Protein backbone atom coordinates (compact mmCIF):
# COMPACT_ATOMS: atom_id res chain seq x y z
CA UNK A 1 0.00 0.00 0.00
CA UNK A 2 1.29 3.44 -0.93
CA UNK A 3 2.23 5.57 2.06
CA UNK A 4 0.24 8.44 0.55
CA UNK A 5 -2.99 6.47 1.02
CA UNK A 6 -2.63 6.12 4.79
CA UNK A 7 -3.53 9.72 5.81
CA UNK A 8 -6.90 9.75 3.96
CA UNK A 9 -7.74 6.25 5.26
CA UNK A 10 -7.06 7.19 8.88
CA UNK A 11 -8.76 10.58 8.44
CA UNK A 12 -11.92 9.11 6.90
CA UNK A 13 -12.23 6.42 9.57
CA UNK A 14 -11.64 8.99 12.30
CA UNK A 15 -14.25 11.41 10.97
CA UNK A 16 -16.81 8.66 10.45
CA UNK A 17 -16.33 7.37 14.00
CA UNK A 18 -16.42 10.90 15.42
CA UNK A 19 -19.71 11.63 13.60
CA UNK A 20 -21.27 8.44 14.95
CA UNK A 21 -20.09 9.29 18.48
CA UNK A 22 -21.23 12.94 18.41
CA UNK A 23 -24.47 12.59 16.47
CA UNK A 24 -25.78 9.01 16.44
CA UNK A 25 -24.71 7.04 19.52
CA UNK A 26 -22.17 8.06 22.22
CA UNK A 27 -20.67 4.59 22.41
CA UNK A 28 -17.99 3.75 24.96
CA UNK A 29 -15.90 2.27 22.12
CA UNK A 30 -15.11 5.80 20.97
CA UNK A 31 -12.99 6.52 24.05
CA UNK A 32 -10.06 4.31 22.97
CA UNK A 33 -10.75 4.28 19.22
CA UNK A 34 -10.89 8.02 18.44
CA UNK A 35 -7.51 8.97 20.01
CA UNK A 36 -5.84 5.98 18.30
CA UNK A 37 -7.28 6.90 14.90
CA UNK A 38 -6.25 10.52 15.34
CA UNK A 39 -2.74 9.50 16.34
CA UNK A 40 -2.62 7.15 13.36
CA UNK A 41 -3.64 9.99 11.04
CA UNK A 42 -1.00 12.40 12.39
CA UNK A 43 1.71 9.74 12.17
CA UNK A 44 0.79 8.73 8.62
CA UNK A 45 0.66 12.37 7.52
CA UNK A 46 4.05 13.08 9.03
CA UNK A 47 5.65 10.04 7.42
CA UNK A 48 4.17 10.76 4.02
CA UNK A 49 5.30 14.39 4.09
CA UNK A 50 8.80 13.55 5.32
CA UNK A 51 9.43 10.89 2.68
CA UNK A 52 12.07 12.21 0.23
CA UNK A 53 10.98 12.45 -3.41
CA UNK A 54 12.63 10.22 -5.97
CA UNK A 55 15.77 11.79 -7.52
CA UNK A 56 15.29 13.47 -10.85
CA UNK A 57 17.95 13.26 -13.64
CA UNK A 58 18.22 16.70 -15.28
CA UNK A 59 20.12 15.18 -18.33
CA UNK A 60 17.29 12.86 -19.13
CA UNK A 61 15.64 13.67 -22.42
CA UNK A 62 12.19 12.86 -21.12
CA UNK A 63 10.76 13.29 -17.66
CA UNK A 64 7.81 11.69 -15.97
CA UNK A 65 4.83 14.01 -15.60
CA UNK A 66 4.28 15.24 -12.11
CA UNK A 67 1.32 13.84 -10.17
CA UNK A 68 -1.42 16.40 -9.90
CA UNK A 69 -2.56 17.43 -6.44
CA UNK A 70 -6.27 16.91 -5.67
CA UNK A 71 -8.44 19.98 -5.55
CA UNK A 72 -8.32 21.83 -2.19
CA UNK A 73 -11.98 20.95 -1.53
CA UNK A 74 -11.42 17.22 -2.17
CA UNK A 75 -8.27 17.32 -0.08
CA UNK A 76 -10.12 18.81 2.93
CA UNK A 77 -13.19 16.60 2.61
CA UNK A 78 -11.25 13.36 2.21
CA UNK A 79 -8.12 14.17 4.23
CA UNK A 80 -5.87 13.81 1.21
CA UNK A 81 -2.22 14.82 1.41
CA UNK A 82 -1.13 17.62 -0.92
CA UNK A 83 2.05 19.51 -1.64
CA UNK A 84 0.12 22.64 -0.71
CA UNK A 85 0.49 23.28 3.01
CA UNK A 86 -2.92 24.90 3.63
CA UNK A 87 -5.15 21.82 3.00
CA UNK A 88 -2.88 19.72 5.21
CA UNK A 89 -3.10 22.26 8.03
CA UNK A 90 -6.89 22.48 7.67
CA UNK A 91 -7.21 18.70 7.85
CA UNK A 92 -5.16 18.58 11.04
CA UNK A 93 -7.26 21.37 12.57
CA UNK A 94 -10.57 19.74 11.57
CA UNK A 95 -9.60 16.34 12.99
CA UNK A 96 -8.18 17.87 16.15
CA UNK A 97 -11.38 19.89 16.58
CA UNK A 98 -13.46 16.73 16.27
CA UNK A 99 -11.28 15.02 18.86
CA UNK A 100 -11.68 17.96 21.26
CA UNK A 101 -15.45 17.94 20.71
CA UNK A 102 -15.55 14.23 21.50
CA UNK A 103 -13.51 14.78 24.65
CA UNK A 104 -15.85 17.61 25.64
CA UNK A 105 -18.90 15.33 25.33
CA UNK A 106 -17.19 12.50 27.20
CA UNK A 107 -15.50 14.45 30.01
CA UNK A 108 -17.92 17.35 30.51
CA UNK A 109 -19.23 16.14 33.90
CA UNK A 110 -15.64 15.95 35.12
CA UNK A 111 -14.68 19.36 33.74
CA UNK A 112 -17.86 21.08 34.99
CA UNK A 113 -19.00 19.40 38.24
CA UNK A 114 -21.73 22.06 38.84
CA UNK A 115 -21.02 22.33 42.55
CA UNK A 116 -22.94 25.63 42.82
CA UNK A 117 -26.24 24.57 41.27
CA UNK A 118 -29.28 25.70 43.27
CA UNK A 119 -32.73 24.29 42.60
CA UNK A 120 -36.07 23.34 44.10
CA UNK A 121 -38.82 21.13 42.79
CA UNK A 122 -42.03 19.38 43.82
CA UNK A 123 -42.26 15.60 43.80
CA UNK A 124 -45.08 13.57 45.33
CA UNK A 125 -48.33 15.47 45.70
CA UNK A 126 -51.18 14.35 47.95
CA UNK A 127 -54.64 15.76 48.62
CA UNK A 128 -53.29 17.24 51.86
CA UNK A 129 -49.52 17.54 51.34
CA UNK A 130 -46.61 17.80 48.92
CA UNK A 131 -42.97 16.74 49.03
CA UNK A 132 -40.47 19.47 48.22
CA UNK A 133 -36.77 19.14 47.39
CA UNK A 134 -34.15 21.86 47.73
CA UNK A 135 -30.45 22.20 46.96
CA UNK A 136 -28.90 25.39 48.29
CA UNK A 137 -25.10 25.28 48.86
CA UNK A 138 -23.28 27.91 50.91
CA UNK A 139 -19.62 28.84 50.57
CA UNK A 140 -17.45 28.29 53.65
CA UNK A 141 -20.24 26.42 55.46
CA UNK A 142 -20.78 22.76 56.20
CA UNK A 143 -24.47 22.98 57.21
CA UNK A 144 -27.33 25.46 57.34
CA UNK A 145 -31.12 25.54 57.74
CA UNK A 146 -33.73 26.90 55.36
CA UNK A 147 -37.44 27.38 56.07
CA UNK A 148 -40.29 26.95 53.60
CA UNK A 149 -42.81 29.78 53.46
CA UNK A 150 -46.06 28.93 51.70
CA UNK A 151 -49.53 30.25 51.06
CA UNK A 152 -52.68 29.46 49.12
CA UNK A 153 -53.05 31.25 45.80
CA UNK A 154 -56.24 33.29 46.23
CA UNK A 155 -57.89 36.38 44.82
CA UNK A 156 -56.11 38.56 47.36
CA UNK A 157 -52.49 38.44 48.44
CA UNK A 158 -52.31 36.25 51.52
CA UNK A 159 -49.62 36.29 54.17
CA UNK A 160 -46.86 33.72 54.07
CA UNK A 161 -47.27 30.81 56.47
CA UNK A 162 -44.34 29.15 58.19
CA UNK A 163 -43.54 25.73 56.83
CA UNK A 164 -41.00 23.13 57.95
CA UNK A 165 -37.26 23.71 58.16
CA UNK A 166 -34.90 21.87 55.82
CA UNK A 167 -31.38 21.05 57.01
CA UNK A 168 -28.83 21.19 54.21
CA UNK A 169 -25.33 19.84 54.67
CA UNK A 170 -22.20 19.35 52.63
CA UNK A 171 -22.20 15.67 53.59
CA UNK A 172 -25.49 15.23 51.69
CA UNK A 173 -24.31 17.34 48.74
CA UNK A 174 -26.45 20.27 49.99
CA UNK A 175 -29.70 18.57 48.95
CA UNK A 176 -32.62 17.51 51.13
CA UNK A 177 -36.38 17.06 51.05
CA UNK A 178 -39.33 17.68 53.33
CA UNK A 179 -43.08 17.20 53.40
CA UNK A 180 -45.34 20.24 53.48
CA UNK A 181 -48.57 19.15 55.16
CA UNK A 182 -51.92 20.43 56.42
CA UNK A 183 -53.00 21.48 52.94
CA UNK A 184 -56.43 21.47 51.33
CA UNK A 185 -57.33 19.12 48.46
CA UNK A 186 -57.39 20.36 44.86
CA UNK A 187 -55.97 23.74 45.88
CA UNK A 188 -53.21 25.88 44.36
CA UNK A 189 -50.27 26.82 46.56
CA UNK A 190 -46.98 28.65 46.14
CA UNK A 191 -43.79 28.63 48.20
CA UNK A 192 -40.48 30.40 48.70
CA UNK A 193 -37.63 30.04 51.20
CA UNK A 194 -36.12 32.06 54.01
CA UNK A 195 -32.98 31.62 56.06
CA UNK A 196 -33.15 30.44 59.66
CA UNK A 197 -33.20 34.06 60.83
CA UNK A 198 -36.13 35.01 58.59
CA UNK A 199 -34.36 36.64 55.63
CA UNK A 200 -35.94 35.83 52.26
CA UNK A 201 -33.56 33.95 50.00
CA UNK A 202 -32.85 35.22 46.47
CA UNK A 203 -33.79 31.86 44.97
CA UNK A 204 -36.32 31.19 43.65
CA UNK A 205 -36.80 34.59 42.04
CA UNK A 206 -40.54 33.90 41.79
CA UNK A 207 -42.64 31.57 43.97
CA UNK A 208 -42.89 27.94 42.88
CA UNK A 209 -46.46 26.78 42.30
CA UNK A 210 -48.19 23.45 42.69
CA UNK A 211 -51.72 22.14 43.11
CA UNK A 212 -52.74 19.44 45.57
CA UNK A 213 -54.48 16.34 44.25
CA UNK A 214 -58.26 15.97 44.57
CA UNK A 215 -59.72 13.97 47.43
CA UNK A 216 -60.40 10.48 46.02
CA UNK A 217 -63.37 10.05 48.40
CA UNK A 218 -65.37 12.67 46.51
CA UNK A 219 -66.06 10.04 43.82
CA UNK A 220 -66.68 12.73 41.24
CA UNK A 221 -64.35 11.30 38.62
CA UNK A 222 -61.07 12.74 37.39
CA UNK A 223 -59.93 14.74 34.40
CA UNK A 224 -56.19 15.31 34.18
CA UNK A 225 -53.13 14.81 32.04
CA UNK A 226 -49.60 13.61 32.74
CA UNK A 227 -46.37 13.18 30.77
CA UNK A 228 -44.26 10.03 30.53
CA UNK A 229 -40.81 9.39 29.03
CA UNK A 230 -37.30 8.29 29.95
CA UNK A 231 -33.60 8.45 28.98
CA UNK A 232 -31.73 11.77 28.76
CA UNK A 233 -28.18 12.93 28.14
CA UNK A 234 -27.38 16.66 28.00
CA UNK A 235 -25.99 18.08 24.77
CA UNK A 236 -26.76 15.05 22.63
CA UNK A 237 -26.70 15.07 19.69
CA UNK A 238 -23.66 17.25 20.28
CA UNK A 239 -24.21 20.95 19.52
CA UNK A 240 -20.93 22.41 20.71
CA UNK A 241 -19.35 23.39 24.05
CA UNK A 242 -21.73 26.32 24.62
CA UNK A 243 -24.68 23.91 24.68
CA UNK A 244 -23.11 21.60 27.28
CA UNK A 245 -26.22 21.57 29.53
CA UNK A 246 -28.83 21.86 26.82
CA UNK A 247 -31.44 19.08 26.84
CA UNK A 248 -33.46 19.49 23.67
CA UNK A 249 -36.16 17.09 24.84
CA UNK A 250 -37.05 19.32 27.77
CA UNK A 251 -36.88 22.41 25.55
CA UNK A 252 -39.41 20.93 23.13
CA UNK A 253 -41.56 19.60 25.96
CA UNK A 254 -41.75 23.03 27.61
CA UNK A 255 -42.77 24.59 24.29
CA UNK A 256 -45.55 22.03 23.84
CA UNK A 257 -47.17 22.53 27.22
CA UNK A 258 -50.16 24.79 27.55
CA UNK A 259 -49.09 27.53 29.96
CA UNK A 260 -50.67 27.19 33.40
CA UNK A 261 -53.11 29.92 34.42
CA UNK A 262 -51.29 33.05 35.52
CA UNK A 263 -51.06 33.17 39.34
CA UNK A 264 -53.21 35.87 40.92
CA UNK A 265 -51.22 36.55 44.05
CA UNK A 266 -47.74 36.61 42.55
CA UNK A 267 -45.87 38.34 39.77
CA UNK A 268 -43.78 35.86 37.87
CA UNK A 269 -40.21 36.60 36.98
CA UNK A 270 -39.42 37.47 33.39
CA UNK A 271 -37.84 34.12 32.62
CA UNK A 272 -41.06 32.27 33.53
CA UNK A 273 -42.63 33.72 30.43
CA UNK A 274 -40.05 31.83 28.98
CA UNK A 275 -71.15 3.76 24.14
CA UNK A 276 -71.85 2.23 27.41
CA UNK A 277 -69.65 -0.87 27.59
CA UNK A 278 -70.64 -2.12 31.04
CA UNK A 279 -71.38 -5.58 29.72
CA UNK A 280 -68.29 -5.81 27.55
CA UNK A 281 -64.61 -6.37 28.25
CA UNK A 282 -63.56 -5.10 24.84
CA UNK A 283 -61.48 -1.94 24.58
CA UNK A 284 -62.34 0.46 21.81
CA UNK A 285 -59.41 2.32 20.25
CA UNK A 286 -59.97 5.32 18.04
CA UNK A 287 -56.89 6.77 16.36
CA UNK A 288 -56.34 10.44 15.57
CA UNK A 289 -58.32 11.55 18.61
CA UNK A 290 -57.38 15.06 19.74
CA UNK A 291 -55.93 15.68 23.19
CA UNK A 292 -57.39 18.70 24.94
CA UNK A 293 -55.13 21.53 26.01
CA UNK A 294 -54.88 21.12 29.75
CA UNK A 295 -51.72 21.56 31.74
CA UNK A 296 -50.22 18.29 33.02
CA UNK A 297 -50.43 17.50 36.72
CA UNK A 298 -47.10 15.67 36.86
CA UNK A 299 -44.43 13.88 34.83
CA UNK A 300 -43.39 10.25 35.24
CA UNK A 301 -39.73 9.78 34.35
CA UNK A 302 -39.06 6.07 33.89
CA UNK A 303 -35.31 5.88 34.35
CA UNK A 304 -31.94 6.60 32.75
CA UNK A 305 -32.08 10.12 34.15
CA UNK A 306 -28.29 9.93 34.11
CA UNK A 307 -25.93 7.71 32.14
CA UNK A 308 -23.32 6.72 34.70
CA UNK A 309 -21.47 4.49 32.24
CA UNK A 310 -21.97 6.25 28.88
CA UNK A 311 -19.75 7.35 27.28
CA UNK A 312 -17.34 7.07 30.24
CA UNK A 313 -17.74 5.15 33.48
CA UNK A 314 -15.87 6.97 36.21
CA UNK A 315 -16.12 4.07 38.65
CA UNK A 316 -17.95 3.21 41.86
CA UNK A 317 -17.35 6.68 43.26
CA UNK A 318 -19.98 8.72 45.09
CA UNK A 319 -19.14 12.06 43.55
CA UNK A 320 -18.99 10.52 40.07
CA UNK A 321 -22.69 9.74 40.40
CA UNK A 322 -23.63 12.95 42.22
CA UNK A 323 -22.07 15.28 39.66
CA UNK A 324 -24.14 13.65 36.89
CA UNK A 325 -27.31 14.56 38.79
CA UNK A 326 -26.01 18.08 39.43
CA UNK A 327 -25.24 18.44 35.74
CA UNK A 328 -28.85 17.62 34.77
CA UNK A 329 -30.37 19.89 37.41
CA UNK A 330 -28.07 22.71 36.26
CA UNK A 331 -29.66 22.52 32.82
CA UNK A 332 -31.79 25.57 32.00
CA UNK A 333 -33.79 23.25 29.74
CA UNK A 334 -34.76 20.98 32.62
CA UNK A 335 -35.41 23.94 34.92
CA UNK A 336 -38.23 24.97 32.60
CA UNK A 337 -39.94 21.71 33.53
CA UNK A 338 -39.16 20.93 37.16
CA UNK A 339 -39.99 24.42 38.43
CA UNK A 340 -43.49 24.10 36.95
CA UNK A 341 -44.32 20.40 36.98
CA UNK A 342 -44.08 17.81 39.80
CA UNK A 343 -41.59 15.10 38.82
CA UNK A 344 -41.79 11.43 39.86
CA UNK A 345 -38.89 9.10 39.14
CA UNK A 346 -38.19 5.42 38.66
CA UNK A 347 -34.63 4.32 38.09
CA UNK A 348 -33.25 2.02 35.42
CA UNK A 349 -29.90 0.45 34.67
CA UNK A 350 -27.91 3.53 33.62
CA UNK A 351 -28.46 5.19 37.00
CA UNK A 352 -26.33 2.25 38.17
CA UNK A 353 -24.48 0.55 35.29
CA UNK A 354 -25.57 -0.91 31.96
CA UNK A 355 -28.01 -3.86 32.17
CA UNK A 356 -27.70 -4.02 35.95
CA UNK A 357 -29.81 -6.64 37.69
CA UNK A 358 -29.44 -6.89 41.44
CA UNK A 359 -31.77 -9.83 42.25
CA UNK A 360 -32.20 -8.20 45.67
CA UNK A 361 -28.52 -8.79 46.58
CA UNK A 362 -27.34 -5.18 45.96
CA UNK A 363 -23.90 -5.86 44.49
CA UNK A 364 -21.57 -2.97 43.72
CA UNK A 365 -22.09 -0.30 42.47
CA UNK A 366 -25.74 -0.39 43.61
CA UNK A 367 -25.26 1.11 47.12
CA UNK A 368 -23.40 4.16 45.78
CA UNK A 369 -25.73 4.64 42.83
CA UNK A 370 -28.89 4.12 44.90
CA UNK A 371 -27.79 6.71 47.44
CA UNK A 372 -27.26 9.31 44.71
CA UNK A 373 -30.65 8.48 43.20
CA UNK A 374 -32.34 8.78 46.58
CA UNK A 375 -30.73 12.15 47.33
CA UNK A 376 -31.69 13.79 44.05
CA UNK A 377 -34.77 11.92 42.83
CA UNK A 378 -36.10 9.24 45.14
CA UNK A 379 -36.47 11.34 48.29
CA UNK A 380 -39.51 13.19 46.94
CA UNK A 381 -41.20 10.16 45.41
CA UNK A 382 -44.14 8.65 47.25
CA UNK A 383 -43.10 6.55 50.22
CA UNK A 384 -42.33 2.93 49.47
CA UNK A 385 -44.18 0.26 51.48
CA UNK A 386 -40.74 -1.07 52.46
CA UNK A 387 -38.15 1.23 54.04
CA UNK A 388 -35.19 1.79 51.74
CA UNK A 389 -36.91 0.53 48.60
CA UNK A 390 -37.86 2.57 45.55
CA UNK A 391 -41.13 1.05 44.37
CA UNK A 392 -44.27 2.96 45.32
CA UNK A 393 -47.89 3.60 44.43
CA UNK A 394 -50.19 6.59 44.45
CA UNK A 395 -53.59 7.75 43.23
CA UNK A 396 -54.97 10.77 41.46
CA UNK A 397 -58.70 10.77 42.22
CA UNK A 398 -60.02 7.43 41.00
CA UNK A 399 -56.88 6.58 38.96
CA UNK A 400 -54.14 4.40 40.45
CA UNK A 401 -50.42 4.18 39.67
CA UNK A 402 -48.08 1.34 40.69
CA UNK A 403 -44.39 2.10 40.10
CA UNK A 404 -42.14 -0.97 40.15
CA UNK A 405 -38.43 -1.37 40.84
CA UNK A 406 -37.26 -3.54 37.95
CA UNK A 407 -33.54 -3.33 38.70
CA UNK A 408 -33.18 -4.23 42.36
CA UNK A 409 -36.13 -6.63 42.11
CA UNK A 410 -38.30 -7.91 39.29
CA UNK A 411 -41.40 -9.11 41.08
CA UNK A 412 -45.18 -8.81 41.09
CA UNK A 413 -46.59 -5.32 41.66
CA UNK A 414 -49.04 -4.80 44.46
CA UNK A 415 -52.52 -6.17 43.93
CA UNK A 416 -54.40 -4.32 41.23
CA UNK A 417 -58.15 -4.50 41.61
CA UNK A 418 -61.39 -2.67 40.91
CA UNK A 419 -60.80 0.17 43.37
CA UNK A 420 -59.75 2.52 40.56
CA UNK A 421 -61.13 3.27 37.11
CA UNK A 422 -57.79 3.24 35.27
CA UNK A 423 -54.72 1.48 36.61
CA UNK A 424 -51.20 2.25 35.40
CA UNK A 425 -48.41 -0.25 36.02
CA UNK A 426 -45.12 1.63 35.67
CA UNK A 427 -42.04 -0.35 34.64
CA UNK A 428 -38.72 1.15 33.62
CA UNK A 429 -38.22 -1.67 31.09
CA UNK A 430 -40.69 -3.03 28.51
CA UNK A 431 -43.18 -5.66 29.57
CA UNK A 432 -43.58 -7.04 26.06
CA UNK A 433 -41.36 -9.82 24.74
CA UNK A 434 -41.52 -8.51 21.17
CA UNK A 435 -38.27 -6.56 21.40
CA UNK A 436 -35.15 -8.52 20.52
CA UNK A 437 -31.40 -7.91 20.87
CA UNK A 438 -30.43 -7.28 24.52
CA UNK A 439 -34.11 -6.79 25.46
CA UNK A 440 -34.42 -10.58 25.37
CA UNK A 441 -32.78 -10.50 28.81
CA UNK A 442 -32.96 -6.82 29.81
CA UNK A 443 -36.76 -6.62 29.90
CA UNK A 444 -39.65 -8.67 31.25
CA UNK A 445 -39.03 -10.99 28.27
CA UNK A 446 -36.21 -12.52 30.31
CA UNK A 447 -38.57 -13.26 33.23
CA UNK A 448 -41.33 -15.24 31.54
CA UNK A 449 -42.57 -16.99 34.69
CA UNK A 450 -43.06 -13.74 36.59
CA UNK A 451 -44.47 -12.01 33.52
CA UNK A 452 -47.04 -14.75 32.89
CA UNK A 453 -48.15 -14.67 36.51
CA UNK A 454 -48.62 -10.90 36.46
CA UNK A 455 -50.50 -10.96 33.16
CA UNK A 456 -52.90 -13.58 34.48
CA UNK A 457 -53.83 -11.17 37.26
CA UNK A 458 -53.98 -8.10 35.04
CA UNK A 459 -56.28 -9.73 32.48
CA UNK A 460 -58.91 -10.10 35.23
CA UNK A 461 -58.99 -6.35 35.85
CA UNK A 462 -60.45 -3.72 33.51
CA UNK A 463 -58.59 -0.68 32.17
CA UNK A 464 -55.00 -1.68 32.91
CA UNK A 465 -52.16 0.11 31.10
CA UNK A 466 -48.44 -0.57 31.41
CA UNK A 467 -46.08 2.39 31.01
CA UNK A 468 -42.45 1.67 30.12
CA UNK A 469 -39.34 3.10 28.49
CA UNK A 470 -35.67 2.09 27.99
CA UNK A 471 -35.71 0.92 24.33
CA UNK A 472 -35.22 4.36 22.69
CA UNK A 473 -38.28 3.71 20.53
CA UNK A 474 -42.04 4.17 20.84
CA UNK A 475 -44.48 1.27 20.71
CA UNK A 476 -48.07 0.64 21.73
CA UNK A 477 -48.65 -3.06 22.46
CA UNK A 478 -51.82 -5.00 23.21
CA UNK A 479 -51.83 -8.20 25.29
CA UNK A 480 -54.73 -10.64 24.87
CA UNK A 481 -55.75 -13.02 27.67
CA UNK A 482 -56.36 -16.75 27.49
CA UNK A 483 -60.10 -16.71 28.24
CA UNK A 484 -62.92 -15.17 26.25
CA UNK A 485 -63.97 -12.88 29.10
CA UNK A 486 -60.55 -11.52 29.94
CA UNK A 487 -59.74 -7.84 29.66
CA UNK A 488 -57.03 -6.66 27.24
CA UNK A 489 -53.93 -4.98 28.65
CA UNK A 490 -52.09 -2.27 26.77
CA UNK A 491 -48.49 -1.18 27.06
CA UNK A 492 -47.24 2.28 26.09
CA UNK A 493 -43.44 2.34 25.82
CA UNK A 494 -41.85 5.75 25.20
CA UNK A 495 -38.19 6.76 25.04
CA UNK A 496 -35.82 8.50 24.76
CA UNK A 497 -36.58 12.04 25.87
CA UNK A 498 -33.12 13.14 24.80
CA UNK A 499 -30.78 10.41 23.63
CA UNK A 500 -29.87 8.33 20.60
CA UNK A 501 -31.94 6.02 18.48
CA UNK A 502 -30.46 3.52 16.02
CA UNK A 503 -31.41 4.25 12.40
CA UNK A 504 -31.97 1.38 9.97
CA UNK A 505 -31.95 -1.28 12.73
CA UNK A 506 -35.31 -2.60 13.97
CA UNK A 507 -35.58 -5.18 16.74
CA UNK A 508 -39.34 -5.15 17.43
CA UNK A 509 -41.50 -7.95 16.04
CA UNK A 510 -45.02 -6.89 15.07
CA UNK A 511 -46.70 -9.82 16.82
CA UNK A 512 -45.84 -12.80 18.95
CA UNK A 513 -45.66 -16.37 17.70
CA UNK A 514 -47.72 -17.45 20.70
CA UNK A 515 -51.45 -17.19 20.03
CA UNK A 516 -54.73 -17.55 21.91
CA UNK A 517 -57.93 -19.10 20.62
CA UNK A 518 -61.00 -16.95 20.09
CA UNK A 519 -64.49 -17.65 18.75
CA UNK A 520 -65.95 -15.12 16.35
CA UNK A 521 -69.67 -15.03 15.47
CA UNK A 522 -71.08 -13.57 12.24
CA UNK A 523 -74.77 -12.99 11.49
CA UNK A 524 -75.78 -13.01 7.81
CA UNK A 525 -79.26 -11.92 6.61
CA UNK A 526 -80.68 -14.32 4.01
CA UNK A 527 -84.09 -14.92 2.39
CA UNK A 528 -84.68 -17.64 4.99
CA UNK A 529 -83.85 -15.25 7.82
CA UNK A 530 -80.68 -14.54 9.77
CA UNK A 531 -78.00 -17.22 9.78
CA UNK A 532 -75.42 -17.39 12.53
CA UNK A 533 -71.95 -18.73 11.77
CA UNK A 534 -69.21 -19.36 14.29
CA UNK A 535 -65.52 -19.27 13.45
CA UNK A 536 -62.49 -20.27 15.50
CA UNK A 537 -59.52 -17.98 15.01
CA UNK A 538 -56.07 -17.46 16.43
CA UNK A 539 -55.07 -14.08 17.82
CA UNK A 540 -51.49 -13.16 18.76
CA UNK A 541 -51.00 -12.98 22.51
CA UNK A 542 -49.00 -9.80 21.95
CA UNK A 543 -49.37 -7.48 18.96
CA UNK A 544 -48.13 -4.05 18.01
CA UNK A 545 -50.72 -1.31 17.65
CA UNK A 546 -48.19 1.37 16.67
CA UNK A 547 -44.42 1.45 16.31
CA UNK A 548 -42.22 4.53 15.78
CA UNK A 549 -38.47 4.03 15.97
CA UNK A 550 -37.18 7.34 14.61
CA UNK A 551 -36.43 10.36 16.75
CA UNK A 552 -34.01 11.37 19.48
CA UNK A 553 -36.82 13.14 21.40
CA UNK A 554 -39.96 11.24 22.39
CA UNK A 555 -42.58 11.66 25.08
CA UNK A 556 -46.20 10.62 25.56
CA UNK A 557 -48.96 12.82 26.91
CA UNK A 558 -51.77 10.83 28.52
CA UNK A 559 -55.10 12.43 29.33
CA UNK A 560 -57.55 10.60 31.59
CA UNK A 561 -61.22 11.56 31.83
CA UNK A 562 -63.44 9.56 34.18
CA UNK A 563 -66.05 12.24 34.83
CA UNK A 564 -68.53 10.20 32.78
CA UNK A 565 -68.66 7.01 34.83
CA UNK A 566 -70.24 4.98 32.04
CA UNK A 567 -67.62 5.98 29.47
CA UNK A 568 -64.15 6.50 30.97
CA UNK A 569 -61.66 7.77 28.39
CA UNK A 570 -57.92 7.64 27.92
CA UNK A 571 -56.38 9.82 25.23
CA UNK A 572 -52.81 9.22 24.13
CA UNK A 573 -50.70 11.72 22.24
CA UNK A 574 -47.11 10.77 21.39
CA UNK A 575 -44.62 13.45 20.35
CA UNK A 576 -41.54 12.74 18.23
CA UNK A 577 -38.90 15.48 17.87
CA UNK A 578 -41.37 18.15 18.98
CA UNK A 579 -44.29 17.14 16.73
CA UNK A 580 -47.35 14.96 17.33
CA UNK A 581 -46.72 11.60 15.63
CA UNK A 582 -49.49 9.38 17.02
CA UNK A 583 -52.87 9.85 18.69
CA UNK A 584 -55.32 7.30 20.04
CA UNK A 585 -58.38 7.23 22.26
CA UNK A 586 -59.35 4.26 24.39
CA UNK A 587 -62.84 3.84 25.81
CA UNK A 588 -62.56 1.89 29.02
CA UNK A 589 -64.97 -0.29 30.94
CA UNK A 590 -67.07 1.33 33.66
CA UNK A 591 -66.10 0.53 37.23
CA UNK A 592 -68.54 0.64 40.14
CA UNK A 593 -67.52 2.28 43.42
CA UNK A 594 -69.01 2.23 46.86
CA UNK A 595 -70.84 5.45 47.68
CA UNK A 596 -68.93 8.13 49.55
CA UNK A 597 -70.23 10.52 52.16
CA UNK A 598 -67.56 13.19 51.78
CA UNK A 599 -68.51 16.25 49.74
CA UNK A 600 -66.59 19.21 48.41
CA UNK A 601 -65.63 21.85 50.98
CA UNK A 602 -66.06 25.41 49.65
CA UNK A 603 -63.24 27.92 50.18
CA UNK A 604 -65.26 30.07 52.57
CA UNK A 605 -66.00 27.05 54.79
CA UNK A 606 -62.32 26.02 54.72
CA UNK A 607 -61.25 29.40 56.03
CA UNK A 608 -63.86 29.28 58.79
CA UNK A 609 -62.80 25.77 59.83
CA UNK A 610 -59.14 26.80 59.94
CA UNK A 611 -59.96 29.75 62.19
CA UNK A 612 -61.60 27.49 64.77
CA UNK A 613 -58.73 24.99 64.70
CA UNK A 614 -59.62 22.37 62.11
CA UNK A 615 -56.80 21.45 59.74
CA UNK A 616 -57.10 19.51 56.51
CA UNK A 617 -55.45 16.42 57.98
CA UNK A 618 -58.53 15.93 60.16
CA UNK A 619 -60.56 15.28 57.03
CA UNK A 620 -58.39 12.40 55.81
UniProtKB/TrEMBL annotation:
Pfam family, one: PhoD
InterPro entries on file: Metallo-depent_PP-like, PhoD-like_MPP, PhoD-like_sf, Phospholipid_Metab_Enz
Domain PhoD-like phosphatase metallophosphatase: 296-415, 417-507
Protein name in the entry: PhoD-like phosphatase metallophosphatase domain-containing protein
